[in-house]
Structures are given as structure tokens and as C-alpha cells.
């Protein structure tokens, strides 16, 4: 569930971030547009006023003169909170009328084109217009310039208002957009939610496939889940078959033990009773062996699902586990040898489960001793051949006919008195390691069991 | 020998007690982990057999507190779990051996003998097994009362094997323990020494088994 939420959240957050970026860049655009628009309209007023004033300039006998039409200034004065400044001056800089201190850019040369500029004046932002007129006549010929300034309060208010309106509209569109995104995400996720619902409401025993016609994007997910369900069912079926087998074997074994004990207790003849008791003891031993092997087998299977393999040197692992195993076989007359053809410094690494290897080795030794006759001879050889590492266990027991090699690897398929689990455990260990398992005739006359492990990572050091 | 058995399954405890009593040991049986721990605090045993899953206090905890107190009594763990990782924890945590349930009583008795021998071998000057007597102080070993003539190094070697019954020892292990640094023995020399000792001990119960490619393991032949 948490994953589902976060997916939705992630989509929404990334969409919102995208919207925010768009919003900010549009807002920047709008701000400069709104300023331009405000300038544009108010500048026209300034132009109009300047034009009206310039029209009333004339050459008098005392030089240039002007008669300011008050309507011109009133026109500008319409913006209530703004202050207006003006000055009319001759080309030589003498002020004809108005405030003398109005600032004029240094590089200004009189022209009949209006020149606008913004600057600070008397503590406020002021927009100024400069426009000239060439006066000629009565011995005079020079420029007269009119400068009109207006504080920016009305313009800025106008720009701000435009800006706010536009952004409000944008925000509205964004919210609606995100709403669509939310809706879209939900729609897109609905097949996943459907799968989740199907899985959640499922009975633990229900191994049917998920029945949703998924959109292309989640089809492979559905397929994977269905594959997983199938594998799970198979493994459960295996486990059930195994449990059934185990139950049968254990019951049979315990039943036999019980029968022997019962018959011993009813046996009037002391000698016969001793025979029965000896048989019962043997049977108990077999039961113990069976139980240990069943647990060992179950453990191998369990570890295969739960314990990762470790990168190790096979011969080191064999040497380490052998010390543990051999203690159980000291009482048998057995000649053991461990041999490795690998140079000690060119280690080939294999992915191993040490406990699996130990169980496999233990069962091979157990089989050799159980089925062979003393003196036993068991040779363990580790041989590497480039991409593979071979573990070979040779015994001098009776061996197994080639035709029966496949069948002895099955569970509970014993050729004689064994539990029929030993080689099945070895097979399970080999499978767990992705190793090939070969049975053959050993040069010692008995069985040769060879496990071929793939080498990983090549030589190191 | 005085043995403490900590096992909560009564039937198993009874059969083990019967068997070990028949071998001539004195068995105290305790079912609760907490009580067993108290008992171990106040009384000295020659060997402790214990289950892992116990009411009150787990076997591992008992073992840990024993070792923390400096109690070196040998401990043999009886574990129902076939998950062998547990065994390793046990051995690393100071157990001397383990045996997996269902327990084969003969095997159990044999393991107990090994542990007790290892202990007496280390603790007292005299080690006895079957017809072999080894007096560590006098450096004299006798089989059936006849002297086994041992050189100094062979005595050392015998001591090492007795102290490590049923443990695999590599040639390097032996060389490290018997020779000093400057002597730098060849592995051949170690082999010859073991062969000589084996010959001298023949007729006795100690068996020095060679595992070609690995090393040696000493054990006591039963009966």
C-alpha cells in the first residue's frame, strides 16, 4: 500500500513541480508585458502633453518662449496620486519655465522624437519624457526641449493589477490541470490497484492466475506475478508430496519399531526376546538415521530458499567440513584421503553453501560405509578445469549400475536397506549450487560421485 | 564421574541417565535452565550434557555464563535442531561437542568418554584409557604395564593428541606445537614422527588415523 501511495505522490509532485516552473516563467513574462503595457498607455499621455506644450512654443523678441496650456498638464494629472514635474529649456540649457533641477541624461541631444527614461527623482521613481522642437524665425534658430515627468505609482499599480489577474487565472488553470493529473494517475494505476485487490482478497489456497486484461505497460508485471504464483504452487505441491512421503516413511519406520518391541514383550522365550530386542534396536537406529536425513534434506531445501551462497574456495570448505564429519566415522575401518590438484595460490572460487556441501559429503561417506564392506576406502578429490571445479568422491563399495543412476537420485528410492535419501540430498545440494551431478564407476571399484561447480570471478590475488 | 544432565524431555533424560549410570557415572538431572544454572554455580561437575531449548534459560545462556565465570567444565550440547548454524554457535560459544537428536545412546556414551578423557588428560598428570597409562609428569607411557619408550618429542606429540582427541590436526598444527621456530621441520619429519609414535602405541587403545591430504585425528578405540 505504501508503495502505491508513493507512486501516486511521486507523479503528482513531479507534475506540480513542472507546473510551478511553467508558472514562474510565465509570471516573469507577464510582469515585463504588464510593465510595457502600462508604460505604453501612460507614455501616450506624456507624449500628448509634451506635444501640446511644444505646439505653444514660439519665438519672441526676447528669444524662445512658451505658454503652457494647462489642459495639457491636467491630462497627465488624471492619475490622482501621481506627481507631475515639467521643465521647458532651450538648447543651451536655460530653463524657460518649470523645475530647474530635473535630471537630463548626459548624452541627450535635442530631437523631435520623444525620449523616455526612468530615474529616481525627489525620492520617487519617475518616468520622464524629453521631446524637442526646432524653433526658427526672428533671428532665432535652435531647439527648445520640453521635459515632463510623472511618478510611477499609477503605472506600477496598473501593471500589478494586470499581473495579479493573469496569475490568478494561471493558478486556476494549474489547479484544474493537477486535478486532471490526479484523475489520470488514478486511472492509469487502476489496473495495478485491481491486481492488488485480487491478491489481497485471495484465499491462501487459491493459486489461480490473476484475471485482468492489463494495459500493455503492466502486462509483463501481471505475467511475472502469474509466473510466481505458478512456481509457488509447484513448490507447495512438491512440499506436500514431500510431507506425504515423510509421513509415510516415518510412520512405517516407527510402526516397525513398535511392532518389534511389542513382539519382544510378548515373547515367552528369553532367547527369542533378545533377538527381537536386537532387531528393535536396529530398527530404532534406522529410524534415527531416517529422521536425521529427512531433516537434513528439509534443511537443504529450506536453505536454498533463504540463505545466499558465499564465494569460497571449494577445497578449503571441504577441508573445514571434513574435520566435523569424520568424527562420526572414526569407529569404521576407513581410509580417507583428500586431494586437490589446484596450486595453492591460484584459487578458483565457487559460490557455495558450506552446510549444503557438508551434508552432501556426509551422506556420500555415510552411503559408502553403509553399503560397502570394511576396509572402506574413500577418496575425495577437488580438481579444477578452467571454468569448472569438480568435487569427486570415490568409494570402494558395491557401486551402482549405470541403468539405475537416474532412479537412485529420486527420494526414497533405495536399492537395498538404506533410507533412499542420501543421494537425493546430494542431488538437492547439487541443484542448489547449479552443479552437474554425475554418477560413474570409481577406480576404487565402487561408486564415483562427481559434482561439477561453475567457477566464479576467475582467479584472484 | 559426576555428570549434570540438563534436559526437559523426561523420557530422554531417563534413558540417558540409565545408560550413563550403567557406564558407572553419577548423573544429576535438571529440567529447568534457571535451576541448572544455579546448580552449576555452586557445584563442580566433570561433564555437563545440555539441551538448547530449555524452560527458564536457554542452553546457550547457561553455557555463556559458565564460561564467563571461568568454569571450564566440558559441555556437550544435545540439540534437536538440525540447523547446524546453531551447533557452530554452541562450539564457538565454548561448547566442547554437540550431538544431534534423536540421540544414539552408544554414540552419546562414546562422546562423553572422549570429553571426560580429554578433561582428565589435561587436568591430571595421569591419563588412562583401556590398557594405556600415560604419566605426564614422569613422561612415561605404559601399555599393559610395559613401558613404551618415548623420546621427548614423541611425549609432546602424545600429549597433543590426547588433548585433541577426535579433532583433526594438520601436519602444520603438529609442527607448530612440537618444534620451535628455528627448527623449521620438514613435513616429512612430522610424518615420520607420527609413524614412529603410532608404531610404539600399537597394542594400545589410542589410534592415530591418517587422513591423506588433511592431517591426523586421534581417537580411542572402543572396547
From TrEMBL, chain A:
Principal localization? membrane
According to the record, the segments passing through the membrane are: 12-34, 162-185
Which intervals hold domain Histidine kinase?
245-457
**Protein localization:** Membrane
List, alphabetically, the SMART domains matched: HATPase_c, HisKA
Q: What's a Pfam family this protein contains?
A: HATPase_c
Superkingdom of origin organism: Bacteria
Q: Name one GO molecular function term.
A: phosphorelay sensor kinase activity
Q: What is its EC number?
A: 2.7.13.3
What are the alphabetically sorted keywords of the record?
Kinase, Membrane, Phosphoprotein, Transferase, Transmembrane, Transmembrane helix
What is catalyzed by this enzyme? ATP + protein L-histidine = ADP + protein N-phospho-L-histidine
Single GO cellular component term:
plasma membrane
Q: Does the keyword Plastid apply?
A: no
Which PANTHER family does the UniProt record give? SENSOR HISTIDINE KINASE YKOH, SENSOR PROTEIN QSEC
Q: Quote the protein name from its UniProt record.
A: histidine kinase
User: Which organism was this protein described from?
Assistant: Thalassospira profundimaris
Question: Source organism lineage?
Answer: Bacteria, Pseudomonadati, Pseudomonadota, Alphaproteobacteria, Rhodospirillales
UniProtKB/TrEMBL annotation, chain B:
GO function terms (MF aspect): phosphorelay response regulator activity; transcription cis-regulatory region binding
Q: Which InterPro entries match?
A: CheY-like_superfamily, OmpR/PhoB-type_DNA-bd, Sig_transdc_resp-reg_receiver, WalR-like, WH-like_DNA-bd_sf
Give all residue intervals belonging to the Response regulatory domain: 2-116
Q: Residue ranges of the OmpR/PhoB-type domain?
A: 124-220
Residues modified as 4-aspartylphosphate are 51
Q: Which UniProt keywords apply?
A: DNA-binding, Phosphoprotein, Transcription, Transcription regulation, Two-component regulatory system
Please tell me one Gene Ontology term that the record gives under cellular component: protein-DNA complex
Pfam families recorded: Response_reg, Trans_reg_C
The UniProt annotation gives the DNA-binding region as 124-220
What are its GO biological-process terms? Answer: regulation of DNA-templated transcription
Task: Provide the coiled-coil residue spans.
Answer: none
Q: Does the record's keyword annotation contain Transcription?
A: yes
What's the name of the protein? Chemotaxis protein CheY
Q: Which organism is it from?
A: Thalassospira profundimaris
Upper classification of the organism = Bacteria, Pseudomonadati, Pseudomonadota, Alphaproteobacteria, Rhodospirillales
Amino acid at each position: 500500500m505504501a508503495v502505491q501511495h508513493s507512486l501516486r505522490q511521486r507523479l503528482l509532485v513531479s507534475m506540480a513541480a513542472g507546473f510551478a516552473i511553467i508558472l514562474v516563467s510565465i509570471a516573469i513574462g507577464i510582469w515585463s508585458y504588464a510593465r510595457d503595457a502600462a508604460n505604453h498607455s501612460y507614455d501616450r499621455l506624456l507624449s500628448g502633453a509634451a506635444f501640446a506644450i511644444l505646439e505653444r512654443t514660439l519665438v519672441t523678441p526676447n528669444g524662445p518662449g512658451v505658454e503652457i496650456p494647462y489642459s495639457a498638464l491636467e491630462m497627465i494629472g488624471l492619475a490622482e496620486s501621481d506627481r507631475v514635474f515639467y521643465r521647458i529649456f532651450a538648447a543651451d540649457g536655460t530653463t524657460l519655465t518649470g523645475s530647474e533641477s530635473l535630471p537630463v541624461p548626459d548624452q541627450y541631444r535635442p530631437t523631435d522624437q520623444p525620449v523616455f527614461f526612468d530615474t529616481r527623482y525627489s525620492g520617487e521613481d519617475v518616468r520622464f519624457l524629453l521631446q524637442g522642437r526646432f524653433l526658427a524665425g526672428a533671428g532665432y534658430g535652435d531647439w527648445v526641449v520640453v521635459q515632463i515627468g510623472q511618478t510611477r505609482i499609477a503605472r506600477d499599480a496598473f501593471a500589478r493589477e494586470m499581473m495579479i489577474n493573469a496569475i490568478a487565472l494561471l493558478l486556476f488553470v494549474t489547479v484544474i490541470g493537477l486535478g486532471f493529473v490526479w484523475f489520470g494517475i488514478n486511472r492509469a494505476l487502476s489496473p495495478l490497484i485491481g491486481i492488488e485487490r485480487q491478491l489481497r482478497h485471495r484465499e491462501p489456497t487459491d493459486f489461480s492466475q490473476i484475471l485482468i486484461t492489463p494495459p500493455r505497460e503492466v502486462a509483463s508485471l501481471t505475467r511475472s506475478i502469474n509466473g510466481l504464483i505458478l512456481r509457488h504452487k509447484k513448490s507447495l505441491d512438491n512440499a506436500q508430496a514431500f510431507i506425504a512421503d515423510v509421513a509415510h516413511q516415518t510412520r512405517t519406520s516407527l510402526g516397525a519399531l513398535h511392532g518389534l518391541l511389542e513382539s519382544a514383550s510378548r515373547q515367552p522365550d528369553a532367547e527369542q526376546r533378545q533377538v527381537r530386542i536386537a532387531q528393535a534396536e536396529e530398527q530404532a537406529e534406522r529410524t534415527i538415521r531416517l529422521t536425521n536425513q529427512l531433516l537434513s534434506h528439509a534443511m537443504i531445501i529450506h536453505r536454498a530458499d533463504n540463505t545466499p551462497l558465499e564465494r569460497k574456495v571449494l577445497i578449503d570448505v571441504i577441508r573445514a567440513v571434513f574435520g566435523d564429519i569424520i568424527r562420526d566415522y572414526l569407529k569404521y575401518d576407513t581410509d580417507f584421503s583428500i586431494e586437490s590438484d589446484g596450486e595453492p595460490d591460484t584459487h578458483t572460487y565457487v559460490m557455495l553453501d558450506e552446510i549444503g556441501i557438508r551434508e552432501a559429503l556426509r551422506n556420500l561417506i555415510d552411503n559408502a560405509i553403509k553399503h560397502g564392506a570394511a576396509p572402506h576406502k574413500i577418496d575425495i578429490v577437488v580438481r579444477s578445469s578452467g571454468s569448472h571445479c569438480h568435487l569427486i568422491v570415490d568409494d570402494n563399495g558395491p557401486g551402482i549400475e549405470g541403468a539405475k543412476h537416474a532412479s537412485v537420485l529420486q527420494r526414497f528410492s533405495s536399492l537395498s536397506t538404506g533410507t533412499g535419501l542420501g543421494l537425493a540430498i546430494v542431488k538437492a545440494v547439487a541443484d542448489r549450487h547449479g552443479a552437474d551431478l554425475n554418477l560413474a564407476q570409481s577406480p576404487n571399484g565402487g561408486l564415483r560421485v562427481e559434482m561439477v561447480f561453475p567457477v566464479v570471478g576467475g582467479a584472484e590475488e | 564421574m559426576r555428570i549434570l544432565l540438563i534436559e526437559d524431555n523426561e523420557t530422554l533424560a531417563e534413558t540417558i541417565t540409565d545408560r550413563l549410570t550403567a557406564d558407572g557415572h553419577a548423573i544429576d538431572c535438571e529440567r529447568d535452565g534457571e535451576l541448572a544454572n544455579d546448580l552449576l554455580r555452586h557445584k563442580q561437575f566433570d561433564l555437563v550434557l545440555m539441551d538448547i531449548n530449555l524452560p527458564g534459560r536457554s542452553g546457550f545462556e547457561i553455557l555463556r555464563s559458565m564460561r564467563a565465570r571461568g568454569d571450564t567444565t566440558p559441555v556437550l550440547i544435545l540439540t534437536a535442531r538440525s540447523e547446524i548454524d546453531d551447533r557452530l554457535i554452541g562450539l564457538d560459544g565454548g561448547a566442547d561437542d554437540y550431538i544431534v537428536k534423536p540421540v544414539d545412546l552408544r554414540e552419546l556414551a562414546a562422546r562423553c568418554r572422549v570429553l571426560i578423557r580429554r578433561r582428565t588428560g589435561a587436568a591430571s598428570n595421569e591419563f588412562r584409557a583401556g590398557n594405556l597409562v600415560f604419566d605426564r609428569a614422569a613422561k612415561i607411557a605404559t601399555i599393559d604395564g610395559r613401558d613404551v619408550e618415548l623420546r621427548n618429542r614423541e611425549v609432546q606429540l602424545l600429549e597433543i593428541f590426547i588433548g585433541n582427541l577426535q579433532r583433526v590436526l594438520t601436519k602444520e598444527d603438529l609442527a607448530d606445537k612440537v618444534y620451535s621456530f628455528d627448527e623449521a621441520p620438514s613435513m616429512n619429519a612430522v610424518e615420520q614422527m607420527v609413524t614412529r609414535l603410532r608404531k610404539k602405541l600399537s597394542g594400545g587403545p589410542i589410534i592415530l588415523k591418517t587422513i591423506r591430504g588433511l592431517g591426523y585425528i586421534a581417537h580411542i578405540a572402543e572396547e
